[in-house]
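Support reply, case 0932

Customer input (verbatim):
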Amino acid sequence: MTATTSQRVTLEIADGVARLSLANPGRRNAIDLAFLKDFAAAALDIQSDASVRVIVMRADGPVFSVGGDLAEMVANRDRAERHVLEMASTFHLGIERLQLSPAPLIVALGGTAAGGGFSLVLGADLVIAGQSAKLVSAYLNSGLTPDGGATYFLPRLVGRQKAFEIMALSPVLTAQDALALGLVTRVVDDAALDEEVMRVATKLAALPSDALSVLKRQLHASPANGLADQLAIEAGGIARAAGRPEVQAALDAFFAKAK
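Our regenerated output:
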């Protein structure tokens, strides 16, 4: 097991699961520059660790994240454009590292995710939410525009018009609203959130071969590909998998059980 800790982010890697926690509950996990530097560093640790098969992102405390630290922006008003560009660039570096990792990303959504926290949720491969969770874009309420990949991920999940409505009007979406829109995968009791997320993560991490990472790569590539290109990717993927010893062993075990 490996573990790293900062005032804002903790990372634990064990049994194939990287558990990345937003760890500043006293400030409702506000996203400031210090957080973003720690987040990008943790994402690099995850991306470069070949033992990681699944990533879990969660938050300490009752709020997932209130989003960008507006007080820090105000404190840097004399260099606002440079400061926010540094923040966004560092934020995006961490997000790219998680997206480029072969391991799928599961978000455990407890409490409210707003602004940059909202963006973090959108980039997940699976989102398991507590029943009291809420999502709100909130950017435009302060006259800001989205970052963190929100304008990339959200239209792909809900379509362009619905994405415009969500980001322009900033409705507060309950867990059930988000489930209906396809922004979360399932909703569970708040008290069961961490347990359910780790149950799913452990099950995924135990899958044979690298099928999970191939699935992530295929699904991420799909929107940019035509049918023929995607079919070729699928054919090559399943053929390579079939030749791996661990897959052949899994197939042998399946037929032995069926007898």
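We compared this against your earlier run and they match. Two observations from our side: The chain has two domains: 2-205, 211-258. The mean pLDDT is 95. Please reopen the case if you see a mismatch on your end.
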